[in-house]
Specification:
Strand order of the largest sheet: 2-1-7-4-5
Number of helices: 1
Largest sheet: 5 strands, mixed
Radius of gyration: 22 Å
């Protein structure tokens, strides 16, 4: 039996996926990890990076050698969604060296901050 050690970037300890052969495809590894962790493929995808080389595996047919260690990150399907909040920078006070961030979305409370310009 061969194995690949994996851990989520937020965890401390590695878990193990076992398989037959000298390597496992990225798609098979994702499928096994999602099954073990009870994740739904419709909810998220997995970003898998080699823990030693920091190489990110992107091709589902990529071969991951046995005894490798990988770092897993959950990513949303379809990428990151943009928020509906709009921020406007008021630059009328540039002589004082500060600006105000003003939120135009009235459905959520916003924090107004002063940012020093260099």
């Amino acid at each position: 039996m061969s194995c690949v050690h994996y851990k989520f970037s937020s965890k401390l300890n590695y878990d193990t996926v076992t398989f037959d052969g000298l390597h496992i495809t990225l798609s098979d590894l994702k499928r096994q990890i999602m099954g073990r962790e009870k994740l739904k493929a419709a909810d998220c995808d997995l970003q898998i990076t080699n823990a030693q080389t920091n190489e990110e595996y992107t091709d589902d047919g990529a071969l991951i050698p046995k005894n490798s260690s990988v770092i897993i990150r959950r990513i949303p399907i379809g990428g990151v969604k943009s928020t509906s909040k709009t921020f406007v920078i008021d630059r009328s006070e540039q002589s004082s060296g500060s600006s105000k961030a003003v939120c135009k979305n009235t459905s959520f409370p916003c924090l107004i901050t002063h940012i020093a310009l260099s």
